[in-house]
Specification:
512 residues, single chain, 5 domains, binds glutamic acid, three-stranded antiparallel β-sheet, mainly alpha, Glutamyl-tRNA Synthetase, domain 2, two-stranded parallel sheet
Length: 512
């Protein structure tokens, strides 16, 4: 097998059976990074051969998720098309030929057993103490297939349109070996494998056949996919051999599982919001039940943060650096540095990444996002105002939405006042200080943070007061809260009129 001289071509091959789990996005990401690092192509192939599991909207969801995650495919449905079509259902006519070729060459056979007959065999085996009955090198001899039935019967059954499947004919006791880039040498004995169906009675190939044929026809050089496919890889290796494609067989890299935060088991689609965080990149509404699962995007995550976090679930560059742009990830990524062990998801770390990316953004950019968010919540503000708010809130927020949740006073005068601060700090003395501040602030010509601070401090000095005597009442009156960013920054942003109005409103509304 020589893949060294070929242009790197990798594929992300999801089945449209529901929303894309974040583990799937990570698989796509490693494919993308590997392709881009080697100047290769990243292909999206939709594996929809199992019509019974098809879910409406899932393909669009997959494409939108890749786009949001900044990984537009080079080829795929709706993208470039040198090797199309990219939906297996549209390639239906391609596969039979290969299945038939395998039969002709003695590597596969027709099997006519009905579902009832197979169930019956399973039941018998169970009663005899073998719970996992398999169609294999031993059992196939007592089944209805082209290896046991006379040729004339096989021919007439086929001519009559009897339903049949095509199964691989595994050899007895043969070691299938291949080198996985992540896992090293893998070796499985065919005695531990079964005669998988390659071609179904409905005229569609199974995943195994379609996957191998498409990878060959699409000139794929590296198959990078989740560890759950490792047990299928020996079968795929044999298929490449039996189809005469061993020379161009792609290299395999099976990625470690994504684990739940406690390390107990695989992070599954069902974990959804149950564990307190999204497992999907975008929000998904189940078309049948209407049930909504949250998405990273809608929860306020930046795609850069989501991607950076995902890249580190199973890979690390071997340095201290944790923040990587997509371009930096492309440069640093290698499959050799992907871990074998499962990667535990850490939600605090994900939030940390978002906070880091939020801080890296300019006030202008944050202001735009904040203005959009505020407008979406029916509290429109102008862009310049939002930029100022963002500049003081950015150090305290993990998300844009927190700038509104924690800084609501920038958007609306307080309707309620924090109970605890009110009880502890609001009294006749506090009212008096607020009255005095109104007077001092009214006289300010430039209403900026510096002037406000000077005026405030002068009031403290003139009256020999500590900050703790005046500050809390002042904050309560302006923001309704007990804590927050610098009061001088807040008042400067609110402006003179609004500041004075709020101080007065507190005096009017809050009895001492
Ligand atoms: N269709 C398979 C999936 O849904 C693809 C596995 C592979 O990449 O070979 O994960």
């Amino acid at each position: 097998m020589s893949t060294t001289d070929r242009k790197v071509r990798v594929r992300f091959a999801p089945s449209p059976t529901g929303p894309l789990h974040m583990g799937g996005v990570r698989t796509a990401l490693y494919n993308y990074l590997f392709a881009k690092k080697h100047g290769g192509d990243f292909i999206l192939r939709i594996e929809d051969t199992d019509q019974t599991r098809y879910v409406k909207g899932a393909e669009d969801y997959i494409v939108e998720s890749l786009q949001w995650s900044m990984m537009a495919p080079d080829e795929g449905p709706g993208f470039g098309s040198n090797y199309g079509p990219y939906r297996q259902s549209e390639r239906k006519g391609i596969y039979r030929e290969y299945a038939e070729k395998l039969v002709e060459n003695g590597y596969a056979y027709y099997a006519f057993d009905t579902a009832e007959e197979l169930d019956h065999m399973r039941e018998l085996a169970k009663q005899a103490g073998t719970p996992n009955w398999q169609y294999n090198v031993v059992t196939r001899n007592s089944m209805k297939n082209s290896l046991t039935l006379p040729k004339t019967e096989v021919d007439s059954r086929i001519a009559n349109g009897d339903p049949y499947v095509i199964r691989i004919k595994l050899p007895r006791n043969e070691e299938v070996k291949f080198e996985d880039i992540v896992r090293g040498w893998v070796s499985v004995n065919t005695n531990n494998m079964d005669d998988k169906v390659l071609f179904k009675s409905d005229g569609m190939p199974t995943y195994h056949l379609a996957n191998v044929v498409d990878d060959k026809l699409m000139d794929i050089t590296h198959v990078i996919r989740g560890e759950e496919w490792l047990p299928s890889a020996p079968l795929h290796v044999l298929l490449y051999r039996y189809l005469g494609w061993e020379e161009s067989r792609p290299q395999f890299a099976h990625l470690p599982l994504l684990l739940k935060p406690d390390g107990n088991g695989k992070l599954s689609k069902r974990d959804g919001d149950r564990l307190g965080f999204p497992v999907f990149p975008l929000q998904w509404q189940n078309p049948e039940t209407g049930e909504i699962s949250s998405g990273y995007k809608q929860q306020g995550y930046f795609p850069e943060a989501f991607i950076n976090m995902l890249a580190f679930l199973g890979w690390n560059p071997g340095t201290e650096q944790e923040l990587f742009t997509m371009q930096e990830l492309i440069e640093a990524f290698s499959l050799e540095k992907v871990n074998k062990a499962g990667a535990r998801y850490d939600h605090d770390k994900t939030k940390w990444y978002n906070q880091q990316y939020l801080r890296l953004k300019s006030d202008e950019e944050l202001g735009e996002l904040l203005a959009d968010e505020a407008a979406g919540r029916g509290m429109p503000v102008d862009r310049d105002y939002a930029i100022k708010v963002a500049s003081v809130m950015k150090e305290r927020a993990h998300f844009i939405r927190e700038m509104i949740e924690e800084g609501g006073f920038f958007f609306e005068a307080p309707a309620d006042y924090d109970e605890k601060t009110l009880n502890k700090k609001w009294n006749a003395e506090a009212r008096h200080h607020v009255e005095q501040l109104i007077e001092r602030f009214s006289n300010l010509q430039y209403f900026d943070a510096e002037q406000l601070e000077m005026a405030f401090k002068a009031y403290l000095t003139d009256n020999d007061l500590g900050f703790g005597k005046v500050g809390p009442g002042f904050r309560l009156a302006i923001t309704g809260r007990g804590m927050g960013p610098s009061m001088f920054d807040i008042c400067a942003i609110l402006g003179k009129q609004e500041t004075l109005k709020r101080l007065q409103a507190a005096l009017d509304k809050l009895p001492a």
